[in-house]
Design a protein that fits this description.
3 helices, 124 residues, mainly alpha
Length: 124
């Protein structure tokens, strides 16, 4: 029997999967739009692919760094807020969730840039 005291608002695995899926799709769509736009601006397909992929990889890398920083310093910042009087609602879990979304957007962008390059390269 399930406990009635469980927090109804806590995210489930399905919620996380949907969040990651939407972020992956967003990254893929953004890259899928960016590559042709850069090509239409007069650049080569190779240049567009490399630059859009690099930006997506930068977002992905930043999220990995931010996630590790959240894990490393998260409890310390939460304790600072609790005992010293910080005035934000920042939490380690929220920070990790944000970095998960950023990482998914970056990963989706890298895949989207690769797939879009294949399509645009075949057309051009």
């Amino acid at each position: 029997m399930a406990s009635d005291s469980a927090d109804e608002s806590s995210p489930t695995l399905r919620d996380y999967a949907m969040l990651i899926g939407r972020a992956l799709a967003l990254g893929a769509v953004l890259a899928g739009v960016a590559v042709p736009l850069v090509v239409l601006s007069g650049e080569s397909v190779r240049f567009a692919s490399e630059k859009v992929f690099a930006v997506a990889a930068l977002v992905f890398g930043f999220s990995i760094l931010g996630w590790s920083g959240s894990v490393f310093a998260g409890r310390g910042i939460e304790n600072f807020q609790r005992y010293i009087g910080g005035r934000s609602d920042w939490s380690e879990a929220d920070s990790r969730r944000a970095m998960m979304v950023l990482g998914s957007v970056g990963a989706g962008g890298m895949v989207g840039a690769s797939l879009t390059t294949a399509v645009v390269g075949a057309v051009v």
